[in-house]
Design a protein that fits this description.
The chain is an alpha/beta fold. The chain has one domain (4-145): HUPs (Rossmann fold, 3-Layer(aba) Sandwich), CATH 3.40.50. It has 6 helices and 5 strands; from the N terminus they run βαβαβαβαβαα. The chain has helices spanning 16-25, 48-58, 74-81, 93-109, 128-136, 148-152; strands spanning 4-9, 31-37, 65-70, 85-89, 113-117. Substrate binds at residues 10, 42, 74, 88. GO terms for molecular function: ATP binding; pantetheine-phosphate adenylyltransferase activity. Keywords: ATP-binding, Coenzyme A biosynthesis, Cytoplasm, Magnesium, Nucleotide-binding, Nucleotidyltransferase, Transferase. This is Phosphopantetheine adenylyltransferase.
């Protein structure tokens, strides 16, 4: 049986930290579905189409990666996609305190297990919220986002 994981998020933008977690996960799973959640109440900086194209450009030629969008509970999307695992990254205690209750709730609703990975320490400071603020204020973010040109062009 294939081990399939889902890596959900809004990815606004998809950072080198996200990419690092996916690359680590490739050694653990037969397939990883990068699932871009769509929330009509959220104002995104980067349009959905550009976020999808950007993520796909980061994993061009990688047969074990699929990129999708979804507008439902993450566990429901996981069931639909045949994913038994949710892949998440943890940088610090704040991430742990946010992610663990969600993982426990997901497990109480389904048999989907959450797997936590820690990114390379050089990527700990990368946070999509901070990256968006840097970009909105005219700062350069290509140091934190692979294939940045795919996101803005």
């Amino acid at each position: 049986m294939k081990k399939k994981a889902c890596f959900p998020g809004s990815f606004d933008p998809f950072t080198k930290g996200h990419e690092d977690i996916i690359r680590k996960g490739l050694g653990l799973f037969d397939e990883i579905v990068i699932a871009v959640g769509v929330n009509s109440n959220k104002n995104y900086l980067f349009p959905l189409e550009k976020r999808l194209r950007h993520i796909e450009s980061c994993f061009k030629g990688e047969q074990k990666i699929r990129v999708i969008t979804y507008e439902k509970l993450t566990v429901e999307m996981c069931k639909d996609e045949g994913c038994s695992y949710i892949l998440r990254g943890l940088r610090d205690v704040k991430d742990f305190n946010y992610e663990v209750p969600i993982a426990l709730m997901n497990r109480s609703m389904t048999e989907i297990e959450t797997v936590f990975l820690i990114p390379d320490t050089s990527l700990f400071a990368i946070n999509a919220t901070i990256i968006r603020e840097i970009y909105k204020n005219g700062g350069k973010i290509d140091k934190y986002v692979t294939n940045f040109d795919q996101l803005v062009n």
